[in-house]
Amino acid sequence: MILAVDIGGSSTKMGLVEDGRVISRARISTTGHADEHVFVDAIAGTARLMTDGSGAGLDSIGIGAPNANQLSGVIEMAPNLPWKHDVPLAKMVSERLGAPATLGNDANAAALGELRYGAGRGYQDLLVVTLGTGVGSGLIVNGHLVLGSAGNAGELGHTTLVMDGRRCTCGRAGCLEAYVSIRGIRETYADLGGDADVLRTEGVKAIADAARGGEKAARFAFQWTADWLAVALANAVAMTGPGRVVLFGGITRSGDLLMEPLLARFDKVLLNIHKGRVDVVLSALEEDDAALLGAAALTTFRS
Prior knowledge:
- The protein has helices spanning 36-50, 89-97, 106-117, 177-180, 182-191, 196-199, 205-212, 216-240, 256-269, 287-297, and strands spanning 2-7, 11-18, 21-29, 60-65, 68-69, 74-75, 101-105, 126-131, 135-141, 144-145, 244-248, 279-282.
- The protein has 2 domains: 2-105, Nucleotidyltransferase, domain 5 (2-Layer Sandwich); 119-284, ATPase, nucleotide binding domain (Nucleotidyltransferase, domain 5).
- Helices cover 37% and strands 20% of the residues.
């Protein structure tokens, strides 16, 4: 029995995973806690309620989170989480629940979920990119998760897309994340003169609805986003040579609005030696299950 935890910018999903199936689910808020200690107390309390009231029976705990370092078990100054300092989350959760805990980058967790249960099955070389509040990526090479010497490799979202461009939450300028995240699409839409009423809503659903209704600013916002993402993916393919790229996250719910221009541009900018050898697809897993199964897979997967 594995407790899987997926920490997002606003909410944290939890699940009990047994034999590759999510058999129980819960959700708590990531925000609104006095500090990280109170947040971990909430995780532990919810886990106890999900089991027998004591947390007994858990073999291990897998936690996916932004800016998580799998080698150290520490969330390192995550710009999209409430705590701007290092948090040794794996140790904190393990101490409260009495089971070994593995903390990993949420995009790495998503990559493992796709590799074992989703669109990445059968591939030894895989790139998984998460598109949501931020832009994360998990990289599988020769069947192994790439962590790097310090445990933080594979940050495609923080590669420079535009020199001296938009300010990113990481503090640098011009990162891919500043252009193809939820915030990025909204900023592009605003720059194109998008409707103020649409911008008063959260997320990108209203922009997608406007695009489907024929609004030019909304359609161009998705076109530009797809163009930027295609270039970044083509660059990543040139460096790592995956057989498949899997896209995951809230932005992918826009479907063909993103995928049609993305695939068209990707084919044009892809290095010739990779054409016909790599495809770009959407996640084959239910969104909630993908994050939880990936977090669970962290407990047994080694780089």
